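Possible regression after last week's pipeline update?

I re-ran a chain I had predicted before the update to compare outputs. Posting the input and the new output here so someone can diff against the archived version. Not blocking, just want to make sure nothing changed silently.
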Amino acid sequence: MPSFETILASVGEFLNGLGPTIVLPVIIIILGLILRMKIGASIRSGLTVAVGFVGIFLTVGLLGSTVSAIGEAFAQNSGTGLKIIDIGWPAASSLAFGSPIGYIIIPLGIVLNIILLAVRATKTLDVDLWNFWHIAFVGALVQFTTGSFWLALYAAVIAFVIALFLADWSAPMVEKYFGLPGISIPHLQSAGYMMLAVPFAMGLRKVPGLKNMKLNPDTTRRRLGLLGEPMVLGFIIGLVLALVAGQDVGASLGTAVTLAAVMLLIPRMVAILMEGLTPLAVAARTFMNKRFAGREFYIGLDAAVLVGSPAVIAAGLLMVPVEILLALGLAPLGNETLPFVDLADGVFVAALIAPLVGGDLILTVILGAIVMGIGLWFCTQIAPAVSQMVAASTSIDIPAGYDQFTVMSDGSVPISYGFYYLSQTPVVVMILVSLAFVVGLFFLKKKFPLGDKLLPVIMPDAIVAAGETPVAAGKAEEASAASKPKKSTEK
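New output (post-update):
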C-alpha cells in the first residue's frame, strides 16, 4: 500500500500537470455551486474563465518568447562575467511542487484560508490554487537550508498568511486603478515586489520634478493620438528594443508586430476572463452578505488578470534592457546573477507597482529598477540553495555551461529571501521575527489600506482604453455594488 507521502506526491504531480487552465475553472465551477449559482451559470463561468486564461497564457507566452529573445540578444551583445543563471519560474514551480511541502501545500492552503476567513483575519478567498507553488517554493528553500520539514512547513504557512494579508492590503488599489471590484491578488511574486516598492513610491511622490508626471498610456494616447495607442506604442517599443538588441531590420519588424499584437490581445483576453469571474464575484457577495452581514470578501486571483493594462505591458517591456543593465552595473557590488528565463516576467514586476505611481511609465520603470536591483542581490544570495535543489532534481531542463542557478521570479521577492536568511539564524529568531512581521502587516492592512489611506490612487488609468474595459459597464456596476457589504438589520 502506498505511503501517505507517496499519495500526496502523486496528487501534487497530478495538479501540477493539469496546470491553472484546468484546475482554476474546476474550482470556479465548484465554488459557484457552493455559492448557490445555477449549474448552467457555474459551468458557463468556469469555462469562460478557462478560455480567458488560455488566451492570457497564450499571449503572455508569446510575449515571453519574444522578450526572452530580445533579452538573450542583449546579454550576448553586452558580454557578461556573471556565473549564476536564472532558470525561471517553470523550473521553480516544478522544484516547489516536487518538494515535500509542495505535496501538501494545496490542501494545507485551503484549510488555512478557511480558518483565517472564519476568524476574520483575512477577507481574501484564494482560488488561485496553482500559484500556491510560490508558497511551496519558500518552504522548499527553508528545507534545503535547514534540513527540517517542520521549519519548512512553518515558513510556508507564514508565507501564505503574508500573501493573503498583502492581497487584503492592496485590494482597494486593485479596485480603483484596474476597475476590478471584489478582486484581490494573493500572488506572492507580484505582491512581494509591491511590498518592497511601497516606501520608494512614497518617496517618488514627494520629489518635485516627479510627483506631477503624467506619462501613462492614457494621457499619452490623448496627447499623441495614433502614436499613443497601446498597439502602436507596443510596435514602437518592440522595434526600438529589437534594433538596440542587434536584431536585423526584418526580425525587428517581426518583433515589433508581435508586441503590438500582445498590447491589443491581452486586454481582450482579460475581458473574457472577467466576463466569467464577474457572476462569481456577485454570487460570492450575495452569499456572504446573507450569512455574514456587514463583512466584505475578495476573490483572490493570479496577477495575470492585471497584465492587460497598457501601463503594465509597456513598463514590463522596458524592464528587459533595464534588468540586463542592472545585472552588469551591479556586478562590482556583488551581483553574480544573469537574468535569463524570467526576463519575460517584467509584466509581473510592474503589475502591482504601476498603480503606486498612477501608471506613469518612467516612474514605474524606476520603481521596477529599484526592486529588481535589490532582487538581483537576493537572487545571488539564494543561489547555493537553488543549485542544491536543481542537483537533487531529475525533471527540469537547465541552461548548458552553468553550474550555479537561481530563480528571478521568486528569488528576488523579499519574502523568499527573508526566510532564506532567517533560516540561517537560531530558530527562535526566525519565529519571532516572522511573527512580528505578520502582526505588523495585519495592523497595516487594517489601518492603512493601500490605494486608500496609504498612497491613494492617483490618475486612475483604466485597464485598457475606453470601450475595452474587462468588465462590461453594467456588470462592473453590478459587481461594484455587490462588493460593498450591506448593513445588518438584525439587532
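Follow-up from reviewer: compared with the archived run. Strands lie at 84-86, 124-126, 183-184, 298-300, 337-338, 404-406. Marking as no regression found.
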